[in-house]
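--- STAGE predict ---
source: upstream dedup step, 1 unique chain passed
mode: sequence only
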Amino acid sequence: MPDAPPEIRLFVAAFEERSFTAAARRENATQSGVSQHIRKLEDRFGVRLFARTAGAISPTPAGEVFYRHCLDILRAHEAAILSLRGFGRSLEGEIVVGLMPSMTRCVLAPSLARFMALHPNVSVRIEEAYSFVLTERVRAGDLAFAVVPSGQTGPGVRSRFFCRTPEVLVAGAARGMEHGKPVKLATLGPIRLVLPGVQNARRVSLDAYLNANSVEVAQVLELDAMLGALDLVGQTDWLTIVPGVMMADSAPGGRWSVGQLADPPLSVDLMLIEPAKRPLDAASAAFLAVLEEETARMDAVWG
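--- STAGE serialize ---
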């Protein structure tokens, strides 16, 4: 089956990247080639698709409408190819999925074990990163899908609800916090807290929670490395707050004591994101189904 029309692909890339140069880099084309294809589209229909300013482009209302129809065309094209490939073949090939550290610590291993037993001919590659990087990788079409905290994703990305997990406080076992008991942060006195950096999607809600509930924070350490944060907490009196699904396998008597934030509770919604122009192939959809089931099973420990 032939590729989708190049003018459609190049227009979508230019729309999502807001740059002919970036669109050319993404589609392995030249900047002049992208510009010429867009100009031909505009000349053919007698309508401007982009407003051009020095060093930047922005879609016109006609460009916004055309973009939505182009996504329908690209998804239908990919769906037709996938339907043909599915006849008479078991699942095989390689899928590339993006996950945050909070998803890889507990959920990934049982998900991979189940999936590989069911589909031994599929190779799964996991890219671990934080939400901003994963979103950009999905937008570029480099990932089949990713799981990120809820938030703005922008053009080129489709999203839907994946799961809701409570935010939990993690302390080193030596601190003496009772494992599994709900925690009211305002009663702990001045605390030293490891938090994600300001660009992390969860940071805004965490800061709002701390301020709204008069939590006395003596010191904040910004650390965008969850495993490093947990290691620091396990060795010192520092505390950290992480999504509950990350600590679902923690048990009493271990290295950490974990408790849900309470009075009031706080949770984080995780979203599934995928390229807007391409539906999930059968292997990616099968892995996603296993990942969702294992996430729900692990997260059930928090009730």
